[in-house]
Amino acid sequence: MTDYKHVSAEQWLEWDRNHIWHPYSSVHSPVTPFAVSSAKGVRLTLADGREVIDGMASWWSAIHGYNHPALNEAAKSQLEAMSHVMFGGLTHQPAATLGKRLVDMTPASLTRVFIADSGSVAVEVAIKMALQYWIGRGRSDKHRLLALRNGYHGDTFATMAICDPVNGMHHLFNKVLPQHLFADAPATPFGETASDQDMASITRLIEQHHHELAAVVLEPIVQGAGGMRFYSADYLRRVRALCDQYDVLLIADEIATGFGRSGKLFACEHAGIEPDILCVGKALTGGYLSLAATLCSEELAATICSGEAGAFMHGPTFMGNPLACAIANASLDVLLSSDWQSQVAAIEQGLRSGLAPAREIPGVADVRCLGAIGVIELQQPVNMATIQPRFVDHGVWLRPFGKLVYTMPPYTISPDDLALLCAKTIAVLSEEHAQHG
């Protein structure tokens, strides 16, 4: 009989190789993952004793770093009371407090909060809200969605259908996904005024299809996994105006950008607009547990509940999980009591100066930074089999994809660690070019 409690690192790594399917990986030619034994601050300690600076904040979620005392204490305290209880017919203080806090920190029109368990589900919930809203208004013909090319909204079925249909990760499923509409990705860079030419595609699609459009779904200002692209706040303002003009809802997917990552608490603030539905996640619990939320207006919620079903038809088993909500409240305490604006601004400046030398490396197409996001775009896709171990050998953890080498570090990273992270990134790219050309 296998002893699962007393196991060597070699044994559990063998179990991992034989049984675990890692994200976006093949069982035929798996890339050996690096074993992590612990994490503290901005560093991961590997099983072989090496330490690496985490430039990814665990896929952008660990904004306060790891093993934060306030978040640890919130988790321990909540565990002593209850780790979970169903949300159907029951409620508890952590969820009620989190809902009130999210309402207080988001646009004034957003007063209803649906607490889900992941970012993809939060966007699914937003889509269902939009569809039920129009059913409630007697407009079931408004059932299609309009998204942006180069967009990414998740890996579940409704979200796959609004990710980029050509360059995204989900074209294999096109035959079973709903067919929605896609506007050209905004080309006007952040900080510039959108041209009529840049607005032409989305304007035409809304004008032609508004009678069947339930909502426009977009990532405000920063298109994340679809290319780490930063676009004009003016573009976003004009999309909001088009939605108002043609009676189409606007869903803002702020899973990646929410809670300060772009330099504003929410990226919509760059444009001074309020979405009809807002999705948040990732950094909500500081990277401790999976949790997300979808916010909407009172009018939208009331219309949904006046419709045929008489209620919003969604209810995850772990909705409103008390443990996750308690940690989320602690994370918001830490964020809002800190000078996070200055922290993020300093990170942006450090990334701008630290990554600037990448422009001199042959094969680099662009270097761009916004808030606590730094991106080096290459002309050719990276070789993950060689570049990932090289980053670890240099003492940093980055997870490139496609042509993009990027970093979204914890807000707590020190200037010295940030400079080291940037310097090592430049060193690795220089070595890769020297070796592979």
UniProtKB/TrEMBL annotation:
This is Adenosylmethionine-8-amino-7-oxononanoate aminotransferase. Its EC number is 2.6.1.62. It comes from the Bacteria. It comes from Spongiibacter thalassae. Belongs to the class-III pyridoxal-phosphate-dependent aminotransferase family. BioA subfamily. Its main location: cytoplasm. The record marks Y24 as: Participates in the substrate recognition with KAPA and in a stacking interaction with the adenine ring of SAM. CDD domains: OAT_like (cd00610). Pyridoxal 5'-phosphate binds at G119, S120, D253, P316, T317. Substrate binds at W59, Y152, K282, G315, R399. InterPro entries: Aminotrans_3, Aminotrans_3_PPA_site, BioA, PyrdxlP-dep_Trfase, PyrdxlP-dep_Trfase_major, PyrdxlP-dep_Trfase_small. The gene is bioA. Homodimer. It is an enzyme of class 2 (transferase). Catalyzes the transfer of the alpha-amino group from S-adenosyl-L-methionine (SAM) to 7-keto-8-aminopelargonic acid (KAPA) to form 7,8-diaminopelargonic acid (DAPA). It is the only aminotransferase known to utilize SAM as an amino donor. Pathway: Cofactor biosynthesis; biotin biosynthesis; 7,8-diaminononanoate from 8-amino-7-oxononanoate (SAM route): step 1/1. The lineage of its organism: Bacteria, Pseudomonadati, Pseudomonadota, Gammaproteobacteria, Cellvibrionales. It is found in: Cytoplasm. The modification N6-(pyridoxal phosphate)lysine is found at K282. It catalyses: (8S)-8-amino-7-oxononanoate + S-adenosyl-L-methionine = S-adenosyl-4-methylsulfanyl-2-oxobutanoate + (7R,8S)-7,8-diammoniononanoate. Keywords: Aminotransferase, Biotin biosynthesis, Cytoplasm, Pyridoxal phosphate, S-adenosyl-L-methionine, Transferase.
